[in-house]
Amino acid sequence: MWPDDLQNHTFLHTVYCQDGSPSVGLSEAYDEDQLFFFDFSQNTRVPRLPEFADWAQEQGDAPAILFDKEFCEWMIQQIGPKLDGKIPVSRGFPIAEVFTLKPLEFGKPNTLVCFVSNLFPPMLTVNWQHHSIPVEGFGPTFVSAVDGLSFQAFSYLNFTPEPSDIFSC
């Protein structure tokens, strides 16, 4: 029996390839919330949130993902040169916002989130700074597709806030 108020949901399995780094990318999102990205160097899904770790182990579609990667590489080699100069290099400027995962309490562990929107093409390197000094030890950057052939990215940094802290990404 179907409920009377069926809701529409969207699962996005986005594969992108480009003449840059990363050359091939894959992200999976549900209702515009990224679940995973695929790390082609490790041939594994990487969950955006720890709650998705069990699902990330699923390998049933590995042959299809390998096909997508090979098809992307073929397109870059065969079709890419014919489209040179015909596809925009970028669309505007990326916008970075920094916020905390939990409400800010000085002296209590928290996580900073760097959210980058208006991203096209999906090439970026996120670096964190604390008082203008580079910070090491932050997690991977998660890139996902959004409507309109645009991308967004998230980077996370665990920290314990102090009143004088200044962070940037």
TrEMBL record:
It is found in: Membrane. Its main location: membrane. InterPro entries: Ig-like_dom (IPR007110), Ig-like_dom_sf (IPR036179), Ig-like_fold (IPR013783), Ig_C1-set (IPR003597), MHC/Immunoglobulin (IPR050160), MHC_I/II-like_Ag-recog (IPR011162), MHC_II_a/b_N (IPR014745), MHC_II_a_N (IPR001003). The gene is HLA-DMA. One of its GO terms (biological process) is antigen processing and presentation. It is a single-pass type I membrane protein. The keyword ATP-binding does not apply. PROSITE patterns: IG_LIKE. This is Major histocompatibility complex, class II, DM alpha. Residues 88-169 form the Ig-like domain. GO terms for cellular component: MHC class II protein complex. Keywords: Disulfide bond, Glycoprotein, Membrane, Signal, Transmembrane, Transmembrane helix. Belongs to the MHC class II family.
